[in-house]
Amino acid sequence: MRPMTSSELEVLDRLLTLDFEGARELRKQAMHILGVESNCTCGCPSITPFVDRSQAAPAPGPSFLPVELQEFMRPSGINRSVICFLDPDGYLGNLECVYHDDAITEWPPTHRSVVLLSDSSRHLISALLPSGAQVRPRDANDHWVSLNEVDSGFGAVTQNGWAEIFDDNGKLISRLSSK
Predict the structure, then answer these.
(1) Full DSSP string of 28-73
(2) Residues 97 and 45 sit within 8 Å (Cβ to Cβ)
(3) Of 24, 43, 61, 164, which one has the fewest beta carbons inside 10 Å?
(4) pTM for the whole thing?
(5) What are 25-55's pLDDT values in tens digits?
(6) Domain segments of the chain as ranges
């Protein structure tokens, strides 16, 4: 076991920024990580954190957290994702860096990453942009099916066929029907 690095802590903190079931307990768990171990042989930086269970309560909710850190603006290669799983007892169990090309040992930089929040049906309902602005579909009864970086900021397409464009600060600058 080794201490958690500043990049690992930054990625975990960014993942836990948004509110969702269990987020409060997970933030407390993150404050009481005793150390981590690498848990993958592919060359990625994925880790298993070890939480001092005497200092932090288990988190309610599903084992697969409803948040994902999605790298945007990667200078070379395909954007990476970071997902997090709980162990069966409700404690942080795996911080996994997912690659769609060759694995590299560094975590995605949080200043070039968006945190995606999904509901219990895994529908994308919110995003925390690199600027810190949180955006949602304009229609609260709709959800996004995609979110991508575009020249003017970030673009999303909703289940009901709306193409929404947000600037880097989260202001909705365009909403057009794609039907």
Answers:
(1) HHHHTEEEEEE--SSS---EEEEE-TTTSPPPPS-SEEEEEEEE-S
(2) yes
(3) 43
(4) 0.89
(5) 999 999 999 999 988 888 789 999 999 999 9
(6) 1-113, 123-179
